[in-house]
Amino acid sequence: MTWIAALPMYNVSAALAADWRTLLRRVSRVLGANGIDIHITEPGDDLHAFWRRADLAISQTCGYPLMHGLREHVQLIATPHFDAPGCEGTNYRSVLVTGGHVSAQTLEACRGLRAAYNQDDSNSGMNVLRHAATPLSRDGAFFGSVLRTGSHIGSLRALAHGNADIASIDCVTMAFVRDHLPDLARSVREIGFSAASPGLPLIASRAAPEALVEQIRAALRDAIDSDTSLARRLRLKGFSTLSLADYARIEQWEDEARAAGYPRLG
Question: Are both 135 and 163 inside the same structural domain?
């Protein structure tokens, strides 16, 4: 059987996308030596469909879709430890950023401003921002308006161009933006961090045998241990295997927002 692999979540630049593919090629070579065929591919526009494929060996998802229907289809391989401000072990935070035209220094001071976010099913762009704004909300609202941009890069550009005022950006993405898109990073201003939650997990299909998953875990560790330059460019320090229970706080934050009368970011 041929298994498929793609790492679509942190491709901030073409160079970074190439590095992620290099990581996958290293894993593929190790598995290939053991008779396991891994095909590195592009996931296409429908990530949810890609993540649900029965032949999926390696991909990465966000914790929010993981806890909203995806967990029935996948198993957790590992959660990376990233070397980025806002990360601690497997936990990560979002950076709260404003456009350069905004004078607010705190989230509370952003009441009534325009928020940008990447996707409705994003933990880092939507869920944690809603969680942070919940205690500040009044009658189900805090921001004056919200703009869905489709990506964290889109949200940062909306701030840079003055089309929105505040956004919540995955701190790993923000670190890669500083590395690869420094002008964009300098166009926004950081005013704080969200609460911490487990980072974006690497996943495999539920159909993947346990022995294959264990080999993938070992190959990932070997890949970054054997190429410290690649690990540094990917900001990878290691991996840990978490359980679905570790991701439960993502649902808890959503439940708390709904209970407080703030079900939608707004």
Answer: yes
